[in-house]
Amino acid sequence: MASLRAELAESQAALGRAAVELARAGERIAELEARLRQTPRNSSRPPSSEGLGKPSPRSLRKKTGRKPGGQDGHEGRTLAQVARPDRELRHEPACCGRCGAGLAGRAVTGVERRQVFDLPEAAVTVTEHQLIERECGCGQRTRAAAPQGAEGPVQYGPRIAAVIVYLYAGQFLSKNRTAQALAELFGIPLSSGTVAALTARAAGRLGGFLEHAREQIAASEAAGFDETGFRVAGRLHWVHCARTGKYTLLMVHPRRGRQAMEAMGVLPSFEGVAVHDAWAPYDTYTAPEHQLCCAHALRELQAVTDAAAGGQWCWAAQATEALTTMQALVAEAVSQGRDAVDPAALAAQVHLYRSAALAGASQNAARSGALMKKHHALARRLLDRQDDYLRFCRDWRVPPDNNGCERDIRMTKLRQKVSGCMRTLTGARQFCAIRSYLSTAAKQGTGFFEALIMLAEGEPWMPATA
Prior knowledge:
Elements: H1 2-36, E1 133-135, E2 141-143, H2 158-170, H3 175-186, H4 192-204, H5 207-218, E3 222-232, E4 235-243, E5 248-253, H6 258-264, E6 273-276, E7 289-292, H7 294-307, H8 315-335, H9 343-363, H10 370-384, H11 386-389, H12 403-419, H13 425-443, H14 448-456
Parallel strand pairs: 3-6, 6-7
Antiparallel strand pairs: 1-2, 3-4, 4-5
């Protein structure tokens, strides 16, 4: 009997250990399945990570009932005939289409106009500047000063320099492809080193512009902040973005956190509303108020919904519906010119939002696995930072998401996709300076090429100040 009891105790202990290991395995399997379900729609993964087998796009936006394409009142753009063409070519009929008789001298009964829009043959114009030297009666010889842009015996003019920087920094061609494009389009012999030199010269003229953009963003009422990884010289660096509806400032730095934010020089003196994701270093700045990005929260909530059992109520789905409905209420109130959102409708959605987050925190309170800990942290953040998530409902200067910042910073990812990485930190900083300049110019109605010509002429475009 004693032997049997000992064997039974050992069996029960083994079963207990097996149960614990099985529970751990179940948690691990759930965590791995959640990773497999991650997509750009429910996580921070980039769209390029899905490869060729990605599913059909599924937006978090709700249907509006509007038909696809241009809406009523939308100003369309299409090719249209002009009243005064540059050239007119007359085409006469050779003979009568019925009897074959000649039509020379017969009356004209109609003219059908057809216009072809095309470019003239591209040709480079060479301007020679002759610096005349004359001798005075006193014997002194004086030579005329060289005009700006003609500092050496041979150089490229501002329009060619603008085209080079436009293709390289504005349209993300590589240095070699930029040189090839100039050779094939204009017959200009060019090396990749020349592309790099002209880009460096353009970036070197932007010191005053960058300082002005930094000051304007720091003094604004609301600004977005974001950062993304960027390969430089084979190592991971970070591109930081600060932006408003009128200004963009990009900076590359070896660090991601507060050290880089201090170096950028915007957040240390910023006292408006900072729009950003839930990354902790942003919250170390206590002078500004904060609007947490609802788009990030919606992606996290979508991941919780995807992990829930089918056919069951999910707290994350209710929180998603409440957040999107509140954004719709604000958009409707703004479009109708009202001063505030309907208080009763807003209160009802806030109640749904909060009750959903409370349910999420309660369901995941055990925090027995990595996935449950992640879901619990999300629910607690929605509760603890409710004022920061819903600030857009009462302060209409503030957008509910940080999508504008992500659009501004996305161009650096496109550069990395083309080039793989930037070879030097200096080149990366030059690229960020030029992209800051071009993005700001575009936001204020100035085209890339026009702004680059001004930059190549040594007089960078500067935003008009109120």
